[in-house]
Design a protein that fits this description.
The complex is a heterodimer of chains A (about 375) and B (about 220). Chain A is built from 14 helices and 13 strands. With about 375 residues, chain A is an alpha/beta fold. The radius of gyration of chain A is 21 Å and the shape is globular. The relative contact order of chain A is 0.14. In chain B, helix 1 packs across helix 6 and helix 2 crosses helix 4. Chain B is built from eight helices and seven strands. In chain B, strands 1, 2, 3, 4, 5, 6 and 7 form a seven-stranded mixed sheet that branches. The radius of gyration of chain B is 18 Å and the shape is globular. The chains are: A alpha/beta (about 375), B alpha/beta (about 220). At the A-B interface, helix 5, helix 6, helix 7 and helix 9 of A face helix 2, helix 7 and helix 8 of B.
Chain lengths: ~375, ~220
């Protein structure tokens, strides 16, 4: 079981002090949070991707590579990579490069999490969101698996004799999750490829999560990747904890009430009841988290959102300390009753082993390394 | 087979003339189905009780439990009766919010009886200038007869033909729901509603088809 955190990278005013961090402070805080996550024993740090204020999460590749250079063990991921508006050719290059730099400590989560106005900045149209996610990923999937790709589609210029570099580390593409809250097409997509499926599990009631995970598991089996209960499922979630439950409620309430997305809406009481948000003692967070299995089955990855809504860095780091304290009990709880045939989330190591061992996959240019021209091409054009 | 009709009433005061009209329409719908020897179950939904949940839905993107159940009932209904007070020359904001948060396609092909109340008959064209376009957009089948009631219509003794209009609209509703070619699911392929989320979860479009559509569609 992988347990970690994911960040959306919002720059939000702390409602208790009226102070808003600068971009620089928030960017550096993200790095501090990731390093702390490794320190307290978490398995995954994931960052979102947005291209507009109030977010600092543009260019997730630089962020992940920078964190990768300052950590040893933690898996770096995205939550999510905008497969709709980002050229799959660039995604293929960027994440293969991070794979090499971090010795395989990277995987990706594909998503469409973008608002309408963002799409045209990248020459795209939100009405094509699902189609973009499907076509772009189909190309990305090939770029990491075929050394030379000829491709023609609807949303980008064709490719002829194209080799994406660097080739994936050890010949093993990064593991991919597909994230969606309520689009059955994306659960279907994840199942088709035998990739992981991640449900945000934050803003929506458990019934939606359950419906999506069930569909994904059923179709994973349909496409021949193995029994439904061996499909690779990840969940989000969020909590705020203090040793004393009432302290947690008192401290978190102003952040919740003014939070982006759900602030000024439902009460904290209603929201904690309707969604997986847990506010309370470490024991309460532990118990609620372990209850997620009741409706999705045994799963592979649990990520928490802990650094949003204007919470100061100091508070976020304290949350990580508390999470670190209950981590052994959480791991033990997840292991309880888990059938032996339910796999762990794939890692670079496990994928390489399953492929029969690591092999170097460098593609050497056959001729002129500087221009890419080959002698026989010159003869044809001459 | 018992037909399900949901009456949506957006009145705010208690008692409200909108609710009064909704009640009379409910009773007339039951009579009209009875007259055809058909069973019907009419459910009346007061949007006032759901006002907070509707706002929460706008802000969070998901429906609290009670509202979720009502939206589901509307989606499954054989017909809908929609009754709103006239506010500032149109349907009320609460009324519009309810239809705003309905899942796209939820009313496709559904017979809808539109009705409105106002202080004066000068607002009566709101049925044709506001409600009809709204439900046309939602691809509902709006009945030819809409029912408008001004305060005068509820005055002592002065029915002014309101009872007649209610009965006629209810009869049209029953005819459209029960009538031979009008039942939902019996439409020709050209006007068959697109697949609902529910159908997609039950029997997803195979990925190969999604892939073809992604690169080949319009």
């Amino acid at each position: 079981m992988q347990i970690g955190i994911f960040s959306v990278g919002d720059v939000t005013t702390d409602p208790t002090t009226g102070r808003t961090p600068t971009e620089h402070e928030r960017i550096k805080a993200t790095v501090a949070i990731a390093k702390k996550a490794e320190e307290v024993g978490l398995d995954v740090f994931a960052t979102g991707e947005h291209h507009n204020p109030p977010f600092i999460s543009s260019n997730p590749t630089a962020t992940l590579a920078y964190i990768g250079a300052q950590t040893e063990r933690i898996i770096l991921s995205t939550a999510t990579t905008l497969i709709t508006t980002t050229d799959p050719v660039l995604i293929a290059e960027d994440y293969a490069k991070i794979q090499h730099l971090t010795d395989g400590r990277v995987d990706l989560m594909m998503g469409r999490g973008n608002t309408g106005p963002v799409y045209p900045w990248f020459g795209k149209d939100i009405r094509q969101g699902i189609n973009l996610a499907i076509e772009n990923y189909a190309l990305l999937h090939r770029l990491w698996r075929e050394d030379v790709v000829d491709w023609q589609g609807r949303f980008r210029t064709p490719l002829q004799g194209y080799t994406s570099t660097p080739r994936p580390l050890d010949g093993v593409p990064p593991f991919v999750w597909h994230g969606s809250i309520r689009s059955p097409e994306i659960a279907e997509q994840a199942a088709y490829y035998g990739d992981g499926f991640f449900h945000n599990h934050i803003f929506w009631p458990a019934s939606h999560t359950q419906q999506m995970v069930e569909l994904y598991r059923r179709r994973f089996e349909h496409y021949g990747h193995g029994p439904a209960d061996t499909a690779i499922v990840g969940l989000g979630g969020q909590f705020f904890m203090r040793r004393n439950s009432q302290d947690a409620w008192n401290e978190f309430r102003p952040y919740f009430d003014n939070a982006p997305v759900y602030g000024h809406g439902p009460s904290l009481e209603d929201f904690t009841e309707a969604t997986p948000l847990t506010v309370g003692s470490p024991q309460q967070v532990l118990e609620r988290t372990l209850s997620f299995r009741d409706y999705v089955g045994h799963y592979q990855r649990q990520l928490f959102l802990i650094d949003h809504a204007g919470l100061p860095l100091k508070t976020v780091l304290e949350q990580l300390d508390l999470l670190g304290e209950i981590l052994p009990a959480m791991r033990a709880g997840f292991a309880e009753g888990r059938p032996a045939h339910v796999p762990d989330a794939p890692t670079h190591g496990s994928l390489a082993a399953a492929a029969g061992g690591a092999v170097d996959s460098t593609v050497y240019a056959p001729a002129d390394a500087a221009t890419g021209h080959r002698a026989e091409d010159a003869e044809v054009t001459a | 087979m018992t037909r399900q009709v949901v009456v949506v009433s957006a009145g705010l005061s208690v008692p409200s003339s909108t609710r009064l009209l909704a009640d009379r329409l409910s009773a007339a719908v039951v009579e009209a189905f009875d007259a055809r020897g058909e069973q019907v179950e009419v459910r009346l939904v007061e949007l006032r009780d759901l006002a907070h949940q509707l706002t929460d839905h706008l802000l969070t993107g998901f429906a609290p439990l009670e509202l979720d159940e009502v939206l589901d009932a509307v989606r499954r209904a054989d017909a809908v009766v929609a009754v709103t007070p006239v506010f500032s020359a149109s349907y009320s904001g609460l009324f519009k919010t309810f239809f705003d948060v309905l899942e796209p396609g939820a009313l496709e092909g559904t017979p809808v009886l539109v009705a409105a109340t106002a202080g004066t008959a000068r607002h009566s064209l709101v049925l044709d200038h506001a409600l009809r376009p709204l439900f046309s957009y939602l691809h509902a089948v709006v009945l030819p007869t809409g029912v408008f009631a001004a305060t005068d219509d509820f005055g002592a003794g002065g029915d002014g033909g309101l009872g007649e209009r209610i009965a006629r609209a209810a009869a049209e509703l029953a005819a459209l729901v029960v009538g031979p070619a009008a039942g939902r699911g019996e439409q020709p392929a050209a006007v068959r509603p697109r697949r609902t989320t529910e159908q997609e979860f039950a029997e997803p479009t195979p990925f190969e088809e999604l892939l073809r559509e992604a690169s080949g569609g319009n």
